[in-house]
Each structure stands twice: as C-alpha cells, then as structure tokens.
Specification:
- This protein is mainly alpha-helical.
- The chain is built from 27 helices and nine strands.
- The chain has four domains: 143 residues, Glutathione S-transferase Yfyf (Class Pi), Chain A, domain 2 (Up-down Bundle), CATH 1.20.1050; 63 residues, no CATH class; 201 residues, Orthogonal Bundle (Neurolysin, domain 3), CATH 1.10.1370.10; 176 residues, Neurolysin, domain 3, CATH 1.10.1370.40.
- The chain has a five-stranded mixed beta sheet, with helices on both faces.
- Strand 4 and strand 5 form a beta hairpin.
- The protein starts with 26 loop residues before the first helix and ends with a helix.
C-alpha cells in the first residue's frame, strides 16, 4: 500500500473549512483510501456487533450512524469527481471499487448479530423516551436493515448479497456506456447553407467547438447546449432527423456500449430482489419508503394528470401541425425532430419572444448573482467567493455562505459548463453532509451544483436560455435544502428525504422565474446594462404555459415507462424497444419512431436512484405549486413565509415524516388545484 503520509485522505484537511484538497488529490490516492476506509468500517461494524454490553441507542444506533468516516470522506470526493470530471482511469477504479463497496455494505446489513442488537432496541423504542429525531433515526436504521435483507434466511441472504453486488456494477456500466457513446458522436458541418435558421450565437459556439477539436467548420454534439438549440432552430429537416435519431439511439447501437442487455439484467435483478423480500414487484418494494407508498397511488397521480393534460396536448399538437402545414404549403406531419422547430416558430409568432431575444439579458454571472440575491431577499443569507478553497477543475468556483446573523452556514461549489468527462444533465450533491459532532458542535455542509450550460465564446460571455436559468434555480433549490440543514445526524440531514419529497425545494424555486419582480432584478443586458424591457417580461409570463400540455405528457411518459419497468411480475426477456413503445403509448402526442429508444440512456431510473420514482417530479410539482400559492398570497419575497418554509421544510431534512412537515408549513394537505391554476387549466 502507498505510504499513508503521501495520501491526503489519511490526514485532517488543512484547507478552509476542511474542504477537500483537490489540488493535492491524485488519482492514485483513491484506491488505497477506499481500501483503508472499507477495512476501518468493517472493523467498526465488528466492534458494534460483538459489543458485550446490553444494546442501547447510543452504543448501537448512534455508533452505526457515526461509522465509516474515512470511507465517506473518500467516496464523496471520488463519486462527485467521477460524475463531473471522469476519465478512463477513474472509470476503471469505479469498476474495481463498486463490488468492494457492495460487499462492505452487505457485511453491515446482513450481519445477524448486528441486526439482533438493532431489533432489540427497535422493539422497545416506546420505552426509551427518545426525541423525535432519535426515533426517526431508529426507525430508518431498522428499515434500512429490513429492506437490505436482514430478515432473510441464510440462503436468501447470500442470494441478496450476490444480486446487490451485480446490480451496483451493472448500474455503473450503464452510466459509463451513456457517457462514452454520447461523447463519440459529432456532427461537423462545413457548408454555410447547412446552418440556415441557426442564430449567430449558436453558430459561434459551434465554430469554437470545431476549432478546439482542430477542425474547420461548425461542430455539434449531443450535449444539451448543442443539441437543444440545433433541434429548435436548424432549418434542415434532414439534419434535425439525423441528430434526433443519434440522440435517441444512445446506448442502442448493438456495440460495446449497448445498454439493452444491461436493462434486462437490471430489471430482472431488481425483480428478484423484490421477490426475495416478499413483494410482487420492485415498485411495491421501492415505494414503501416514499410519500406515495404504493404503485396504485402513483398510477392514480399519473392518470389524473394525463386526463387533465392530454386533451390540451392534443390541441397543442394540432395547432403546431396546422402551422407547419401553412409554412410548408403542404399537408405536414410533425415528427419528433420537427416538434421543437415548429413549436418554437409558433411561439415566436404568438408571443414574439424567443431564446435569442432573451439570451443577452441572461448572462450567466449576472443570473448567478440574481439567484444568490433571491436567497438573500428570502432568507437573509449571503455568498462570498473564496479562491483559497481548492477545486477539482479551473471552471469550478467555491463560495462561503453566511447566515442572516453572519454565522458561517455552508460551502457552495458551482460547476456550470459541459466537458468531455462530465455526465449530461444537471444535479446537486453533497461533498459533506451537515451533522452534529460527538461534542455537540455543528459540522456545516459542503454542497455542489453541477450544470451543462452554454459556454462562453470568443466574443460573448455565457448567455443562458430561459430553460437554463430555470435549471439553475432548480438545482439551487436543492442546494438550499442541503445548506440549511440543522440535524443531528448526517443520514437524516438536508436532501436525505423521501424521493418524492426531495424535489419540492428545487421545483419551488422555479416559480420565481415567471414573476415580474424577480425577472426585473435578474435579467440585465450583458452589453448595455439595461434591464429587460417590461414587454419582454410580460411576453415570457404569457408564454410560460405555451405547450404546457405537451410538456406534462412528456414527463408523464417517463413516469409510465419507469413504472412499467418496475411493476413487472415476471422476469423480462422481451424486446426492449417494443416494451418501451407499449409502456408509454397512452402519453404519445407526436408520432412514434419505430427504431428509437430512450430507455437505453434513461440514467435516472437505471443508474441514478429514481427507479420506481420518476413520478416524483410530478408528485412534487403538486406540492410546489400549492406551496408557492402561499408566497403568492403573502408576497413572493415575504420573509415570514420564507422563514416558515426554511424552519419546517429546509432545515428538517428527513428528521420527520414529510406529510407532517408539509402540513406544518402549509396548514393543510396539498391540492392539485394550484398546479392546474398555474398551468392555466
């Protein structure tokens, strides 16, 4: 093993606030730190399990909660960097480490002596006079053992061990296949006429992309800042179709990065685990620990929304199709590669507003300041950049966050632009959770938000689309949830809540983007310094519900697909493409394309923790619309309402049942009416 003296993971970090010393961490440091972290964790677990003293909340439940410090330390750094700055060597390490981690966690949850101690405390919890938070930790600990095989017989425990290890590797491979397959596709255009319809800003970005790759022309790829505007503005239907088919065949090319067989294995292993645990489907098994509780309640939400929104979506499609026929002067069927193009033109016609008109007002740095300032207005917190905090890439920035009373609250890292080693999409994560040290002191969190925003060009700063601003608000909402955490235990802190509750703080923040008072603060022209014109603001608000039915049905299609994969009762050996088409056919608005596949790149459900949980975006949308209606009643910058949301939701994490927390904030159960009203239905 490498000398511990040379490995920063084996030392106390001497950086500001104990942030990871990214400038010192080398790839060679990870594996030895993982191995030592696993060894120490196993040692701690044995000590807890073999303790001859009578099991108590302190010597068993809290001891478990505090275990694995080094492993948590290296894992949080490694997996954050793996998502945002991966390379082949990091991916190879992840493949080697994954089975070791699975084995280590199985050694905890399948340890009979340890579970016996946990159960003995759980069985007498009514006699222990525990606090609400302690009771929640005990319940969650017992539940964690139960769902991870502790109650199984010896034979089934070994089967679970084998299945869970294989599942973790398959999920990792699924994710890496997506990244590799997506990264290898490039569309190089060399003729000016091929760029017809594309705004100057998009052309300039594509030219810079080509130049950086040592090529002449304009280079487009499947990253969001390249793909989305191409589909929205490129006049060439042939090129749009080409790009669409490439995007919808990620992980579906029959080669070494093909994910179809991995999908079969993942859903079948999940089903086998569910059967081992006594459930008929994986969704039944997974949903037990959510607000929804059962597949029946999930399907009720999906069908209620489908009934409300599909008629609207069909009218929207008809309007776009009629408009396209008028433009093309022939009967015209709008296909998936046409939808963005013609609907954007129709939106521009109806509202005279589009991304290229608003981009100059959404300069990234100005938007970032505006979003931070929104948190200041609502909660009184402030942000201060700190260049002494090491980062894992030059584009990453670190901020100290201070509470309204000037006390240190958190560290926030921001990482905004796409790179070859970065996963697509946007996310928030913790580098360190908030928790209380053994001496009772408050260990504050370190939070990271990662995006894939439009890059600056040689002549312009990063200018965002309206959707990209929305994404920043969304992930910042997650960040607030992490930064405001005020719990005793890391496992219940911040965003460690039910999957269908975690999107409430993030989606709530999106609501401010269609409020005049906020847009007037955030949108300032990057050249003239002038605020966005009032007529632009009104047009953005008027256009907010344009094609809202289609957008809802698209989200519902992902929810139905997810539930279809995870309500299987028998092992799946069929055709993945055919299964997908059948699963979401009731949500279809635009004609299906026979040979395309979305499941093979559906990282949310096959590698990202949203299995049998994608519905949660719509579930939380009902919550966030209902929650924001209170801000609308009291004032969108009302600090009293914001303080109530902070105290009852953001600070509490998973320390209490989310139904109770929500009612405490809102004073009542959520109602779907607020969402329908917001969407103009």
């Amino acid at each position: 093993m490498e000398n511990k003296i040379d490995n920063p993971f084996f030392k106390n970090y001497s950086t500001p606030y104990g942030t990871p010393p990214f400038d010192q961490i080398q790839i060679a440091h990870y594996e030895p730190a993982f191995d030592e972290g696993i060894r120490l964790l196993n040692e701690e677990i044995q000590n807890i399990a073999n303790n001859v003293e009578t099991p108590t909340f302190s010597n068993t439940i809290i001891a478990l909660e505090r275990s694995g410090k080094l492993l948590n330390k290296v894992s949080s750094v490694f997996f954050n960097v793996l998502s945002a700055e991966a390379n082949e060597e990091m991916m190879e390490i992840s493949q080697r480490i994954s089975p070791k981690l699975s084995e280590s966690y199985n050694n905890i949850y399948l340890n009979e002596k340890l579970f016996k101690r946990v159960k003995s405390i759980y069985d007498q919890k009514e006699l222990l006079s525990l606090s609400l938070e302690d009771t929640r930790l005990l319940d969650e600990t017992f539940e964690a053992f139960s769902v991870r095989g502790a109650t199984l017989n010896s034979k089934d425990k070994e089967k679970y061990r084998e299945l869970s290890t294989e599942l973790s590797l398959l999920s990792l491979t699924f994710d890496q296949n997506i990244l590799k397959d997506k990264n290898r596709y490039e569309l190089l255009l060399t003729q000016e006429e091929e760029l017809t319809g594309l705004p100057e800003s998009i052309r300039e970005a594509a030219a810079l992309q080509a130049k950086e790759k040592g090529k002449n022309g304009w280079l487009f790829n499947l990253s969001a800042p390249s793909y989305i505007p191409f589909m929205r503005y490129a006049a060439s239907r042939e090129l749009r179709e080409k790009m669409y088919r490439e995007y919808m065949s990620i992980g579906n090319k029959g080669d070494e990065y093909d994910n179809k067989e991995i999908i079969r294995k993942i859903v079948n292993i999940r089903l086998e685990i569910a059967h081992l645990m006594g459930y008929s489907t994986y969704a039944d098994y997974q949903l037990k620990h959510t607000m929804a509780k059962t597949p029946t309640r999930v399907y009720k939400l999906l069908y209620d929304l489908l009934e409300a929104y599909k008629p609207v979506a069909l009218k929207e499609y008809k309007a776009v199709q009629e408009y396209a026929s008028e433009i093309e002067k022939t009967a015209f069927t709008v296909m998936p590669w046409d939808w963005s193009y013609y609907s954007e033109k129709l939106k521009d016609l109806r509202f005279n507003i589009n991304d290229e008109m608003t981009r100059p007002y959404f300069e990234l740095e100005q938007v970032r300041k505006g979003v931070f300032n929104l948190a200041t207005q609502l909660y009184g917190i402030t942000f201060k950049p700190n260049k002494d905090i090491p980062v894992y890439h030059p584009e990453v920035k670190a901020y100290e966050v201070f509470d309204i009373d000037g006390k240190f609250l958190a560290i926030l890292f921001t990482d905004f632009h796409p790179r070859e080693g970065k996963q697509s999409g946007a996310w928030m994560n913790n580098i360190k959770e908030q928790y209380h040290e053994t001496d009772g002191s408050d260990s504050r969190p370190q939070v990271i938000i990662v995006m894939n925003f439009t890059r600056p060009t040689e002549t312009k700063p990063s200018l965002l689309t309206f959707d990209e601003v929305n994404t920043l608000l969304h992930e910042f909402g997650h960040a607030l949830h992490g930064m405001f955490a005020q719990g005793a235990y890391a496992s219940l802190s911040g965003t460690n809540v039910y999957r269908d509750f975690v999107e409430l703080p993030s989606q709530l923040m999106e609501n401010w983007l269609t409020e005049k008072e906020f847009l007037d603060q955030i949108a300032i022209h990057y050249q003239s310094g002038k605020k966005i014109p009032k007529e632009f603001i009104q047009k953005l608000i008027d256009a907010a519900n344009f094609n809202v039915g289609y957008a809802c049905c698209r989200q519902l299609s992902f929810g139905f697909l997810d539930m279809a994969w995870h309500t299987l009762k028998n092992p799946f050996q069929g055709d993945v493409i055919a299964f997908e088409k059948e699963a979401w056919k009731q949500t279809n608005i635009v004609p299906e394309v026979a040979d395309t596949l979305m499941s093979s790149s559906f990282g949310h459900i096959f590698s990202g923790g949203y299995s049998a949980g994608y519905y949660s975006y719509k579930w939380a949308e009902v919550l966030d619309a209902d929650a924001f209606s209170l801000f609308k009643e009291t004032g969108i910058f009302n600090q009293e309402t914001a303080l109530s949301f902070r105290k009852n939701i953001l600070e509490k994490g998973g320390s209490e049942d989310p139904d109770i927390l929500y009612k405490r904030f809102r004073g009542k159960d959520p109602e779907i009416g607020a969402l329908l009203k917001r969407n103009g239905l």
